[in-house]
Amino acid sequence: MSSGASASALQCLVEQLKLEAGVERINVSQAAAELQQYCMQNACKDALLVGVPAGSNPFWEPRSCALL
């Protein structure tokens, strides 16, 4: 690798680190509490918790009865 290419790679790395350093961060405990609150507020809309009504399930294969 040439010195110009490595200098360019290092410059890109420095720019990326500057961007990451500027990101606002919160405590894990605060993030966990907010996530738990969001989950509890939206639990009634979660299809994995309450199920999908049979009439509105797009994956339900319609059954047909054919007499031979």
Automatic annotation (TrEMBL):
Gene3D superfamilies, per database record: Transducin (heterotrimeric G protein), gamma chain (4.10.260.10)
Biological function: Guanine nucleotide-binding proteins (G proteins) are involved as a modulator or transducer in various transmembrane signaling systems. The beta and gamma chains are required for the GTPase activity, for replacement of GDP by GTP, and for G protein-effector interaction.
UniProt source species: Pan troglodytes
Every G protein gamma domain range: 3-68
Protein name: Guanine nucleotide-binding protein subunit gamma
Keywords: Cell membrane, Lipoprotein, Membrane, Methylation, Prenylation, Transducer
Main subcellular location of this protein, as a coarse class: membrane
Taxonomic classification: Eukaryota, Metazoa, Chordata, Craniata, Vertebrata
Record text on subunit structure and interactions: G proteins are composed of 3 units; alpha, beta and gamma.
A matching Pfam family: G-gamma
